[in-house]
Amino acid sequence: MQTPAPPRFTHERHARILDWLNAHGRVEVLELARLLEVSEHTIRRDLEALQASGVLQRTHGGAVSIDTSRLGFGGRSAVLAKVKDALGHTGAGLIEAGQSIVLDAGSTTLAMARALTVRPLTVITNSLDVAAVFDRDRAVQLVVLGGVWQPEHRAFWGHATCEMLANHRADWAVPGVCAVDLAAGITATEEPDAMLKQAMVRVARRTMVLADHAKVDDVAPYRVADWPQVHTFVTDRPWPELAAKGVDVRLAADPA
Questions:
Q1: Nearest by Cα to 221 from 250, 195, 252, 256
Q2: How far apart are CA 161 and CA 148, in angstroms?
Q3: Which of 52, 50, 56, 2 has its CA nearest to residue 24?
Q4: Would you state the torsion angle of the CA atoms of residues 13, 17, 19, 22, taken in this order, to the nearest 10 degrees?
Q5: What is the C-alpha to C-alpha distance for residues 212 and 237, in angstroms, rounded to an integer?
Q6: pTM of the predicted protein model
Q7: Closest CA to 106 of 62, 68, 144
Q8: Does 1 score more than 50 pLDDT?
Q9: What is the Cα–Cα distance from 132 to 249, expressed in whole angstroms?
Q10: Are 87 and 212 in contact (CB under 8 A)?
Q11: Contact 51/80 with Cβ under 8 angstroms?
């Protein structure tokens, strides 16, 4: 098989970088410089331009795809980390002392867990990472849902998880989301995950969705919730069309 000639123009390099990202989920500066036969400085400049356009997130030594469904938990945590912190802080600011909250597994919900400072609080979660935030806090009543452990997602899923959750009631559900769309609502990439998220919505008085712009205008295979089931949507870019549906749209504030 003949090796493709090195791209001569910037747009050709960008296309080749995105092809590599789509195939592998992440790229390294050194590897790209070798494959494209350009300097590391040129690759870093290319990655900065692609990050500005919203199609990837720079990391130390390279970049990861914004298509977070392809990444493990560590990769997802690296994508738009500052934005996720802002989403988490804004969401946490809506929780009142004495309330109960169902917190799903995920990098954005973990950011919210770390930002929750109101006490007392009841936290119900299927995530060991979220549980670890509160495990020594006597002012938090912590409920950890069991089930089948999913190491890639660092979460418990399955029928046992849903059955345990059904015994609880909460003021807020904060399901992690894979994709959000004005017509399709909230969707997830895997069926067991979607089933658990549906159960979270059922046991809560209100549902809050935290989603960065990379998840907006996208649809995953499995339905989680329609917009009438969502009370509050926290994001990093205005979405007036969603607000027109009656959803309380909040723009994330920089935690710094």
A1: 195
A2: 8
A3: 56
A4: -160
A5: 8
A6: 0.73
A7: 68
A8: no
A9: 29
A10: yes
A11: no
